[in-house]
Specification:
homodimer; six-stranded parallel sheet; three-stranded parallel sheet; 15 helices; 36% helix
């Protein structure tokens, strides 16, 4: 049966666009100049500036409500977006139109996992800005209607003690979800296998807060973009130049650039790596109550990867520095939740994935969301699915793992 | 029904270990010193040397016939391997034991896609060595029993004219399969989207030779290994050192090293990228008869990626520099063949994948092969599969795409 009227959609992955006063309303006077603020350039574009640097897109990919032919063009001013992008009151109305009851909203300007503050030159300012974002997220955005928004926070990962303290602080304010880099290694942080993160995992376990790994939050770009000239020492330079010339291109530009749609298709590969690395990290045995969500990763690949996890473990564990006794799919099924926007193959294989581990995301206001037709699109995907399964996927699983009960 | 006795297994991905005289038997006198040859070091280990460099493993991962507790240890001498690794007469006997009728065998010392010759300092020597390998592969190895070995070659990709000439040369000698880097970009070559490869694709189309993209042949290592200290500028150095110290590790070694088993599990992600990049490259429309095999990539992920290909195309093609009219899954289903060693989820979903696009691999003598039980293991995987489907997957599809008829 399709989606029933009494089923409430809880989205585990939406996005908010920070309005111009998010930081200036909260930062101390000494940080007002260097802290994040909006400026307008000569062409009338709104830009974030932080520590003297310019961040060119105020709402990367915030295109909800645009016509198809406009999609792909970034909003250049706040009045180039619908208010639901940056105004929580308008957002609730847009969720009503879309038939969505609750949503967890990720950061935009700071990066999905807080990368901009991680890269701050003045880490005192970086921490203050990050805390300002968390206060905005939990108090102002979610506070607008606590029954409609799942409180989400980011952490100062450059210092484990600060990260632990901030996690405790946001837990006390009601955080249910933390956006963590999908892979800390490319950011220069210790990887998932390191004991470094243990004190933080302890607090996640104590508080029950979910760790969400969103595609792109680890700043790793899939390998097929590595076609820069710097990588071509063994290739004959004259030939390469003539290729570029033949294509009518700039001599410094490769003619083999991969269109970004290819990256969209393989989003999930980063999260496959994250999950597999965590499964073999040894950390899940030390932190049995840790909960990970794989945001914007789809679910149709879960059975393939699970089969390979066990197959490789059965074959290779004898000589690998990994747990000899715990079956990797037991760890995977226990610790990981997936979500999807559209994934009919995944829905058909929901019982191989684990019906209790599937949630949905809306991805408002990004280009892949189905707004204002999310409920309609999901309903069509569920035509052959029993009510009991649908209810778990769209609502109950998310409410349970996020500790976000129906009011 | 399980595998029937009259079904012949044709493996599209096995490996040969070059014996010590492969190059010395064929190279001109002036190249004998610098060309590839086997030396024995003070510990009695056999090593390849080429252009003054040492290559430490003669048969990476050539462990067929070893006990489980020995697996993972590389063979250090030829007499540390079973003869089937490097002797085609013994290989045929091992294939008989395993119930395998025919096999395509990839290079070992040169790298799956010929990387070692691509990196040669003296490209004249590199070309001579590469041609020696092809002559060995086609004339000596496959020539031992042409009904049992599918002729496979590698190409001098550093020069498109040489590559075209070598492809024509090996085509005339009967090559059916060429091992091409699964992604040329990380090698410093133009990517799949470049017109650079057009003249080579033309010859592949004319000759009907299949392009095999084997995991690892593009030398790209999945991103989660990027945990080198060089990547840690924003992480506090003192903390990182103390982490290493606490773990009892070397100060220069990360405590977060990912065990290689994690890479084994996500092998296929590289090939997902390769296929998706090719689908959006524009080259398949220009070369409608090109045929790609994804070697050691499994098949269980095909439906998930195909669904995403079309979904992203329907949504994003309006503003992307891609073909507006051709549905990507039509290109995918037309141009790509998959194979598996073990992939029960893929077998269950064989009709969503495309029953005509599935083949099998044995992967002898590598650690993931089921030798000497390949036929038994496959038979168990096919218990619920109709004979007609099994016959296509284990034999008919490979014979047709490789133009390798039953004798």
């Amino acid at each position: 049966m399709p989606l029933q009227d009494d089923m409430q959609i809880v989205s585990v992955d939406d996005h908010l666009i920070e309005h111009p006063r998010v930081f200036s309303d909260r930062l101390a006077a000494k940080f007002q100049d260097e802290g994040p603020r909006i400026i307008e350039d000569e062409q009338g574009r709104h830009l974030w500036t932080f520590e003297g640097e310019i961040f060119p897109y105020i709402g990367l990919n915030a295109v909800a409500g645009k016509k198809p032919e406009e999609v792909g063009m970034e909003p250049l001013r706040f009045d180039d977006m619908i208010p639901g992008c940056y105004d929580p009151v308008a957002r609730v109305k847009d969720m009503d139109v879309d038939g969505v009851q609750a949503a967890a909203c990720f950061p935009s300007f700071p990066g999905f996992g807080g990368r901009v503050f991680f890269n701050s030159k003045n880490k005192e300012l970086g921490l203050a800005s990050l805390q300002a974002w968390n206060d905005f997220s939990i108090d102002e955005w979610c506070g607008t209607d606590p029954s409609r928004f799942v409180p989400l926070a980011i952490l100062p990962l450059w210092d484990i003690d600060l990260a632990v303290a901030e996690l405790k602080r946001v837990a006390a304010k009601g955080a249910r979800l933390v956006s963590f880099p999908d892979n800390p290694s490319p950011l220069g942080l210790p990887g998932f296998s390191s004991d470094h993160w243990g004190p933080l995992w302890d607090v996640f376990e104590e508080t029950g807060i979910v760790v969400s790994l969103h595609f792109g939050s680890g700043s790793f770009v899939p390998g097929f973009h590595a076609s820069a000239k710097a990588l071509r020492p063994n290739f004959q330079g004259e030939q390469f130049k003539s290729v570029s010339a033949r294509m009518g291109g700039n001599a410094d530009a490769a003619d083999d650039e991969v269109p970004s749609i290819a990256t969209f298709v393989v989003y999930a590969t980063n999260l496959m790596w994250s999950a597999v690395e965590l499964v073999f990290s040894g950390q899940l045995q030390k932190h049995p109550r840790l909960k990970f969500m794989l945001a914007e990763g789809g679910i149709g690949w879960f059975p393939y990867i699970m089969e390979r996890l066990d197959l490789m473990w059965e074959r290779h564990r004898h000589y690998q520095p990994i747990d000899f006794h715990t079956r990797p799919t037991d760890l995977f099924k226990k610790h990981f939740w997936g979500c999807f926007i559209n994934d009919d193959f995944g829905i058909r294989n929901r019982h191989e994935i684990g019906i209790d581990r599937i949630t949905v995301e809306i991805d408002y206001p990004h280009v892949d969301c189905n707004w204002p037709n999310s409920r309609k699109v999901l309903s069509e995907s569920f035509l052959d699915v029993p009510d009991e399964d649908v209810r778990k996927m769209v609502e109950l699983n998310a409410r349970e793992v996020l500790n976000f009960p129906r009011v």
